[in-house]
Amino acid sequence: MTGIVVITHNGRMPSEGGKRMGYMCDGRIFPLPGISITVVRPTTPSRPKYADLPRCRSAANRCPNCGSGSTNYFMISFAEGGRSALRCEECDTLMRSYYD
User: Fold this and answer.
1) pTM across the whole model
2) Dihedral sign, CA of 8, 9, 14, 20?
3) Domain boundaries defined on the chain
4) Which of 71, 73, 77, 84 is most buried per CB count within 10 Å?
């Protein structure tokens, strides 16, 4: 049992100006009489495209974000399939090779 959660029209508590629409308890939703509540599930995030990654700053594979030269190649799954990409060790930015 997780307790009772108040459902409001804007996500704020009723004391902060939220209009009470119903309650949720143990994953079940109980709307107030006369009010319909539509439950929207978040969409699953799509895989990134390789072309959307920023390109390295130079042929020495410098990071476009911080300029660091400490980068490592690794395999990652993109929408086009598995490709090798670079990750900066300093700022953790994903990037593609300078020649791609």
Assistant:
1) 0.48
2) negative
3) 1-41, 50-95
4) 71
